[in-house]
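A note from the maintainers: we've had questions about how concatenated examples are separated. There is no special marker in the raw files; a new sequence line simply starts the next protein. For clarity in this README we add a label.
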Amino acid sequence: MKKGIHPKYELTEVKCAGGFTVKTKSTVRNLEVEISAFNHPFYTGTQKLLDTAGRVERFNKRYGIKE
């Protein structure tokens, strides 16, 4: 690599809005993120699934579409 053209690659701390912190290496000093794998609803199992079957019937009924 050429000297003097690359940013410094140093130890940094990534802070999640949920309070979780991870130490890693990056060219950015400190990072703050809103969502991580430790508090995302999909990964924690708290994600709610929507019932889309009723929505289709309601749409068809509203616009008079016969099946």
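[label: protein 2]
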Amino acid sequence: MKKLKVMTIFGTRPEAIKMAPLVKKLQEAEGIDSILCVTAQHREMLDMVLNLFELQPDYDLNIMQHGQTISDITVKVLKGMEQILQETKPDIILVHGDTTTTFVAALAAFYQQIPVGHVEAGLRSGNIYSPYPEEMNRRLTGSLANLHFAPTEGNYKNLVKEDIQEKNIYITGNTVIDALLQVVKKDYLFEDPRLNKIDYENKKVLLMTCHRRENWGEPMKNIFEAVVEITQKHKDVEVVFPVHLNPSIRSLAKEIMGETKAMHLIEPLDYEPFANLLNKAHLILTDSGGIQEEAPALGKPILVMRTETERPEAVEAGTVKVVGVEKEAIIKEVDKLLLNSKDYLHMANAVNPYGDGRACERIITALKYHLGLSQEVPESFSTI
């Protein structure tokens, strides 16, 4: 029997984390010829994840360039994927989420009439400029895709509202939970000795990530000032902030936050140490997307420093609260969780709406079923 040729395409660290467990499963799956292509929209951070999961790309566009713009990425991926797709002729490509690599790879496949499967489909914030350009990348990819692997029922409903045929949508849970559960270890030791010296049992460790484009400027200044004030008010609090490589973010962080006994500005972490730091933290402050899915799996409350989120299921479940980017609002919500154990436990114990560690398994079953390789009907992920 002819094998199903499946090409997985990604280019950034977040995509790699969420797609790595799926690629591993595809490589093991009977009846599937798995091909891995990376664009290296990110280079160093992408390679960290490839090394962690022991993945060797079959194709690598290596497009990253210092100071690259969205237009630069778009042109390079579109042209680079054209040649690779013509050479390999996959039966279907799989892309993930909302990056420029995702949208443009889907467009390149469409131009050659190659079916597209969209992993983590159906997320919507309702504002095409927030997050930017991710929200529009999601929508455009959804318009190009033939198969939609929606993490949740809410994502499924978003796609149905956009007139996507229900028979082409599968509710799978999110692959990030599959990845997370593979790398978290109870007695994990960090390479950075500063992280091993932190008293996670007796200190309330706040893990922060902050890098979103829409928060550059005054919003990020507000966030950094709020965190400084929180450490001054609460002597049992320590903050760990893996600072993004963007020079403007690093400069502002150093200027406002500095390095104190309560403030640890560290280099970006590989996925494995970051996941284990997430597991040890007391509370998460973030403007990122994926962490809103990961932290609930570990029982960690999350305050989202944005004005909206494309992951409303987490808000509805009670694991996430959107607090905006105003200094006083951030301080108020952090104070509430630090001082009120009832509020903290309500968020920490809420059911994770994003997955159970079997998303990759469901995606492969759906692929085989939809493309005629198997008669096994895929089951849907549900929190009920």
